[in-house]
Amino acid sequence: MAARFISRPLVRPFAFRSIPTPLPRLLRPYSQPAAKSYENILVTLPEPGVGLITLNRPRTLNALSTALFNELNAVLVDFDNDPSTGAIVLTGSEKAFAAGADIKEMKDLTFSEAYNTNFIASWSSTIPNIRKPIIAAVNGHALGGGCELALMADILYCSSTANFGQPEISLGIVPGAGGSQRLTAVVGKSRAMELILTGKSFTGTEAGQWGVAARVFDGADECVKGALKTAGKIAGMSKVAVRAAKEVVNKSQEVGLREGLDYERKAFHGLFGSRDQKIGMLAFVEKKKSEWTDE
Predict the structure, then answer these.
(1) Residue 220, C-beta contacts closer than 8 angstroms, at least 6 positions apart
(2) Is 145 an annotated catalytic residue?
(3) Taking a C-beta distance cutoff of 8 angstroms, is the pair 105, 2 a contact?
(4) Which residue among the candidates 34, 168, 192, 208 is catalytic per the annotation?
(5) For the segment 103-116, what is each residue's pLDDT rounded down to a tens digit?
(6) End-to-end distance of the chain based on CA atoms, in angstroms?
(7) Cβ(2)–Cβ(102) below 8 Å
(8) b vs e for 231-244, b when ≥16 Cβ sit within 10 Å of the residue's Cβ?
(9) Rounded to an integer, what distance in angstroms lies between the CA atom of residue 276 and that of residue 280?
């Protein structure tokens, strides 16, 4: 059954406080829950500067739905606007990051309904516009929309037994949230064709070998902890420099080399107008720790 979305006023900025609540075994050792609760996700604060979002539809192996994305997008925007947050980790359960889209939500759609409502556009329109780094920690199944969601992240970590794939062809459709574009950009046309035309899945180990994943871990706990460690390190950097770094890397995926180099150099020059550039370089010269102002 597709999840129901309960509309509640958003709280900006977050009013975080510790509330005793049951969390997945994977997260208990290092998570603090946020004050606001959701129906399809868990939002926690594992350490200062790091937001952790856990997809939480265990009965459906975290099947993706519009209701889930309404919550996910709202939280991502809140974290993006929260000055105390420096990086975001997105994960699921040990069994499934997200096993695909909730087929019950879309099985009876007609072409005109899907086309006129721009169905699932909201699933992939928010994440690319989040300015803070997003790290996906993938365990278990990441199929269809789940694979597409993982590919939207800035950094992808996974366990060796993770199961990726774009099996939409077996349902009589094609990927609709960026799978054919992002997967092809990473693994190349021939391999993407094989995966998408056959619906064949690939392992976390293969994801690492093919460049889909930045790091591959032996187990689920290690994967999430690794993502949180990286997020914590990023959160400790100058937010001005981090945003610029994300922008220049993303630009390389959108334009040719010449234009990308020009864009990078302008960003590089621009950062000399920031306070953090002065702080960082002076701290380096004086062999001190940088105390960032994020200005």
Answers:
(1) 26, 94, 139, 140, 159
(2) yes
(3) yes
(4) 168
(5) 888 888 889 988 89
(6) 47
(7) yes
(8) bbebbbbbbbbbeb
(9) 6
Distance between CA atoms of residues 176 and 192, nearest Å? 15
Asked about 101 being catalytic, the answer comes back as yes
Question: Which one is catalytic: 49, 145, 179, 226?
Answer: 145
> Averaged over 43-70, what is the pLDDT?
95
- Residue 156 pairs with which residues in a beta bridge? 136
Per-residue tokens: 194: 């094989």
Q: Specify the pTM.
A: 0.86
Catalytic choice (34, 74, 98, 101): 101
CA 159 to chain centre: 16
